[in-house]
Every structure is written in structure tokens, then in C-alpha cells.
Amino acid sequence: MARRSYAIGVRGAGVVGLWQALVLARRGHAVTLYEQSAQPFAESCSVYAGAMLALRCEEDNAEPVINELGKRGIALWRETYPGTAVNGTIAVALGRDRAELDRFARMTGGHRRLSAAELVALEPGLGDRFAGALFFAEEAHLAPEPALRFVLDRAQAEGVRLRLGASEAPEGADLVIDCRGLGAKDDLPNLRGVRGERIVVKSRDVTLTRPVRLLHPRFPLYVVPWSDGLYMIGATVIESEETGAITLRSALDLLSAAYAVDPAFAEAEIVRQGAGARPAFPDNRPRIIARNGYIYVNGLYRNGFLLAPALAELVADYVETGAKDPEVFVEDPAQR
Ligand SMILES: Cc1cc2nc3c(=O)[nH]c(=O)nc-3n(C[C@H](O)[C@H](O)[C@H](O)COP(=O)(O)OP(=O)(O)OC[C@H]3O[C@@H](n4cnc5c(N)ncnc54)[C@H](O)[C@@H]3O)c2cc1C
Q1: 201 lies in a domain?
Q2: Would the CB of 286 count as within 6 Å of ligand 1?
Q3: Is the CB of 48 inside a 6 Å radius of any atom of ligand 1?
Q4: Where in the sequence is the domain holding 226, given as residue range(s)?
Q5: Domain end: 280, 297, 312, which one?
Q6: Residue in 11, 46, 272 to alter for ligand 1 test, most ligand atoms within 8 A of Cβ
Q7: Tens of pLDDT, residue by residue, the chain (336 residues)
Q8: Ligand 1 near 52 CB (within 6 A)
Q9: CA-CA distance, 302 to 277, in Å (whole number)?
Q10: What is the DSSP annotation of 72-124?
Q11: Domain holding 321: CATH number?
């Protein structure tokens, strides 16, 4: 029997809405993507991301569902976007924070301990400054802006129509998928923003090829190599929805962490700084909430890039078969 094709409106062109539009269009649905901003990504949290696909390191503060969806997420990024780098992640700790490495090893899976020689062989820039290191081979990363542009282009090539400057709920669609991130707070009162500050630098001297996490008891931070000598240094986790410029204290923490990871950052040029607010529910788990032809996909918190492709597939399956994955579909209106 031929699958029914629907006219679907997707609200919000962050990483969640883009993947949603792409997956539904690939399955033959007529998709229109509505974005409030006049330029793509101008008002999205997604441009602030790392964007690490950290299905293992995030086990430190996430539920098992993140890992399961994350595996599918990485597979879909790899199939779709040639810029997906699967080089793994290294976690390191300075001598005084050695206990953090043991704690992190207990809280996460899919890693192996690196000897000093193995660490230098993998990332010569890390030298012998660390008390120990863990290697998470499954993890991947990408540069967010080129990746978002690529997914948008792919979606349009699959027939998705993009409407910029469009903030009203679409009319006349069979179904609406609401991917407005924090913009959906009017409908989802439990949603909150968690401020993440980051700095992007450019360096000719740093040679890192994979994300490096510097474990620390108070502010664990990381460095992500994008491309063309750009490195993202991130990120704070602050219970606030304020975006805009970062604070002096956070700048000191972020830049000190980068310098501790690799002193070659000393000569780097600061290219941009800023903060985004991650959309999150009280338990920091992602949710799909389906009600009368209107479906919210939200609360991806620290893992929007990791999870967006897999959640898009779950929504498409639901649209076509009514199947609801109990790990992410929420029925109870009180949990919205
Ligand atoms: C500093 C930082 C680092 C991060 N690092 C990582 C990482 O390494 N890996 C990872 O996986 N995740 C990371 N994240 C998390 C990730 O960025 C978020 O989970 C993700 O961006 C959420 O995507 P979204 O599409 O739900 O929201 P958004 O990107 O905010 O997109 C929502 C879109 O909806 C639009 N919108 C709002 N209201 C309306 C309306 N009424 N009509 C139409 N459009 C509307 C907005 O303009 C916006 O474009 C990080 C986040 C931050 C802040």
C-alpha cells in the first residue's frame, strides 16, 4: 500500500527543525519550514553549539536514552554530512584533578585509558602535561554553522520550502511540528533556558584534531577543533536565559582552560564570543509531545546536534504509523 503523503509545517529552523524538515521531505511529505528570523540561524541556539556528537561523555550527566538515540544520530550525520569528523574525544585532567578522571571514567562508558605515549601519538599538542587521559573512540564532531547550512540546502534540494520572517502558526497544514526551541515557552511552561557561553578563536599554532575535555571539579570545559584553524572553547552551564555577551569571569575560565589544554593557544586570535540558551525540561531529557496533529520536539538541552536526527526519525515514524517510543513521547499534559 502506498504511504500517505502529508502537508507538514515545521516551525523553527534550528538544528531540530532542519533535521525534521529533511527527514520528512526525504519520506515524500510536502514540507514547509517556517522561521521567525529574516536570516537563517540569526536567532537560534544552534549556532552557539560545539558541536560535539558526544554520546559517551554526556553520560556523565544524562540518561541512557541519550546514548541510544545518539548512536543513531551519529550514523545519520555520517550518512548525510561529509563534514562529520569521527575522530573520537579525549578527556584529560591536570595532576591536582586526577580524581576527576577516575570519577569521569566511572560515570561514562566506551573509553580506554591512554598512556602518556599514546596520548602524545594521538594529539602531539597535548604533550605530557596531564595526569592521565581517556579516549572515547565513538564520538564525533562538526562545525555547527556549515553543518546547519548543509542540512538546510539538502532539505531544500528534497523539496522543503523555506519561509523566513514567519513567526505565526502555519495554517492549512495536515500536521505541524513545533521545533521553536525556547520560542515554544508560551505553550510549554516547564521549558527553561540554560545559558552556555563560548569563545571561538583562530590559531595557526594549535594542531588539535578532536575535541578535548579538561575535567575539573567546578568548571569542566572543552575545546573543539572546527576547521580552517578555528577552535570553539566552551561552555558554561548557567541557570539563566540571558544570551548576548559573556562575562569577564567566564572569559577567564574559558581562556585559562584552553591555555591549560595547549599553551599554543596563547597566540590565538579571539574571533567571536557569545552565549546561547539551551532549551531544557526540568529533567533535561528531550521530549516529543503529540496532540491533535500538533507535535512539539523540544528540550534537547546539551545534545541538540547529537539527538536531532534520531528524534526526527521517531517523529516521522509516528506520523506514518502512530508508533510512539515511550522513552521520549510524553502523554501526560502536566509534563509539558
Ligand atoms: C554554548 C553551547 C554549546 C553547545 N554544545 C553542544 C554540543 O557540543 N553538542 C550538541 O549536540 N549540542 C550542543 N549544544 C546544545 C544545542 O545547541 C541545542 O540543544 C540546540 O541548538 C537546540 O536546538 P533547537 O533547534 O531546539 O533550538 P534553536 O536552535 O534555538 O532553534 C529554534 C528556532 O526556532 C525559531 N523560532 C522561535 N520562535 C519561532 C516562531 N514563533 N516561529 C518560527 N520560528 C521560531 C528560532 O528563531 C530558532 O531559529 C550547545 C549549546 C550551547 C548554548
Answers
A1: yes
A2: no
A3: yes
A4: 89-137+192-280
A5: 280
A6: 46
A7: 457 899 999 999 999 999 999 999 999 999 999 999 999 999 999 999 999 999 999 887 777 888 899 999 999 999 999 999 999 999 999 988 999 999 999 999 999 999 999 999 999 999 889 988 999 999 999 999 999 999 999 999 999 999 999 999 999 999 999 999 999 999 999 999 999 999 999 999 999 999 999 999 888 899 999 999 999 999 999 999 999 999 999 999 999 999 999 999 999 999 999 999 999 999 999 999 998 889 999 999 999 999 999 999 999 999 999 999 999 999 755 544
A8: yes
A9: 10
A10: HHHHHHHHH-TT-B---EEEEE-GGGHHHHHHHHHH--S-EEE-HHHHHHH-G
A11: 3.50.50.60
